[in-house]
Write a structure and sequence with these properties.
Elements: H1 3-16, E1 26-29, E2 35-38, E3 56-57, H2 65-78, H3 82-93, H4 113-118
Antiparallel strand pairs: 1-2, 1-3
Length: 125
């Protein structure tokens, strides 16, 4: 397994620890207009829910399909829910493998250069 795939798998395992996504990933808008992602509907009082009160399925970027098989393969190998990884990539980079944040995090899952160096990743993209 190449170093980028190893670091990708390690990040997935860290993020997914203790998480189960049986029904997929959903989201709601909070009162600040931010998307809040979850796998089970949050237990909220009626006045704290979104205006429609409906769960909305996560919509992925048009670039999603080019990574779908790789994500599924690695997640199956490591026992991680692919829905979680897909949601993290969607939120972190919108499936733009060349994304760079204002603090220097890069790639699909926004890996920091120091973290990449620590784990021997040759290319964070």
């Amino acid at each position: 397994m190449t170093k980028p795939i190893r670091i990708f798998a390690a990040l997935v395992l860290l993020i997914a620890a203790g998480t189960s996504f049986a029904d997929g990933v959903l989201w709601k808008m909070n009162d600040k207009g931010q998307k809040v992602f979850y796998n089970n509907p949050p237990k909220v009082r009626p006045q704290a829910s979104s205006s429609s009160g409906k769960n909305i399925a996560l919509v992925y970027s048009k670039n999603f399909e080019q990574y779908s098989k790789l994500i599924s393969t690695i997640c199956e190998r490591h026992g991680v829910a692919p829905q979680l990884v897909k949601a993290v990539i969607q939120v972190e980079s919108n499936y733009n493998d060349r994304a760079i944040s204002h603090v220097g995090a890069s790639g699909l899952m926004q890996l920091m250069p120091a973290t990449a160096a620590r784990y021997g990743v040759d290319s964070i993209f």
